[in-house]
């Protein structure tokens, strides 16, 4: 079992509780969904995932805030949300009550999923959060313990080539890379303006602290855990004419995020 009460845990927990109090973008429940909107929001068919999730057990990993959880629940899935932030989980429960659906919430660190009590899932849905911990291999080992054979693991994470780079790095000609491309390089940068579309609270919110996870570490670690890559997408912006040095322009030049879909097939490649 991983000892979660370390400095990384405390930093992430305190930051996300402050983000909830500030009503930051990723803490706001989606309260205007119906089945069609939920299906479009999740984009399961685009990802090559089964579109019919009714009755399927879904784990929304580090995915609190009342967004993905209620979208899956509206489509009939049996949903568990696991998140470090009690405030985020409270919003999942409030959103579920709003729709009259059920979700199960569990508080904890994604590096230790023992609080799930041996439950297993057909789909693990893991939005942007992997870079908040130094070693992705620990997370992947935990995911393996809770996913059914043949189950799918959706992972969205920072594009490691551009980790720590933002539109503020514009130098007049391009965006300057300065961080070394090495395992667990710590990066920090101001939150993007669009995180706070509404006025934040008076709390001082720490900047995100992230750790570079090179693509080779991500892919080879998951392969060794028994996962088979089924889908990969570079997520970029599409804003023709965006002003150089703006966030919109940056996302078209340097895709900030990657999406993966993995399938757990232990033994298929001879690693297990």
From TrEMBL:
Domain Methyltransferase type: start-end pairs: 59-154
Pfam families, A to Z: Methyltransf_11
Name this polypeptide is given: Methyltransferase type 11 domain-containing protein
InterPro entries: Methyltransf_11, SAM-dependent_MTases_sf
Protein species of origin: Nonomuraea gerenzanensis
UniProt GO MF annotations: S-adenosylmethionine-dependent methyltransferase activity
Gene3D superfamilies with a match to the protein in the record: Vaccinia Virus protein VP39 (3.40.50.150)
CDD domains, A to Z: AdoMet_MTases
